[in-house]
Amino acid sequence: MLPTPYIKCDYDKVYEPSEDSFLLLDSLEKDLEYLAQKFKNKLALVCEIGPGSGIITTFMIQNHIPTTNNNSVYYAFDINPWALEATLDTVKLNRAKDNDNNNAGSKSSLLEPVQVDLTSSWRSNQIDLLVFNPPYVPSETIPTRPERKEELDTWVDLALEGGKDGMEITNRVLAQLDTILTPNGIAYILFCARNKPEEIIKSMKENGYSNWNIELVKNRKAGWEVLSVYRFSRC
Ligand SMILES: C[S@@+](CC[C@H](N)C(=O)[O-])C[C@H]1O[C@@H](n2cnc3c(N)ncnc32)[C@H](O)[C@@H]1O
Question: Which residues form a coiled coil (predicted)?
């Protein structure tokens, strides 16, 4: 089992890694070989939307996911400015630990944090690997993006609240998958049961995504919630 990155963050400012974060780590670990085959000898452009503390981006950098070499460039896109700082700090902390332990780890990978709403600033069909643990909790509304960095509660609410069925943010990403990913690209996206992922996938298949493989990678009961990670790629 691959080690979980060290995290030291202020959870008044960013989302604290939880069962959902760990399920995504386990899903990526399960698919290590699959990803390595798919991106063998290629330079991969990796993007995590909503890195929060940086746990998943750091894990991918440390383990050279998706390639087995150092041939990836990592982007971290978060609407929360604190999350971008936290992600840089987490990568730095784990680099220092890797150096202390003489592990190759994350030494030379490139990481670019960008404060952005989802992938709105991205050119079409550029991302090879997309990872997203979205705000998936059903809520009446999505909080409005704060004017000021100091409005901590709202930034943290933005990490959780997903509007109707918890799907308003995730739906925006799903609708763009075809234009976000490279032809060979893959996305890992987390859902909770209240998002009704089976219905979402059926509807995607009937509406323009019939030539996509959409597969459950891992699911797990977390308290009273059931979480699932699905993998999206073109057939
Ligand atoms: C559930 S947290 C996941 C954090 C981290 N990836 C993890 O797994 O622990 C969701 C993240 O998405 C970010 N987020 C929410 N809405 C966003 C948007 N419209 N654009 C970019 N990031 C967004 C939040 O700020 C938060 O960092």
Answer: none
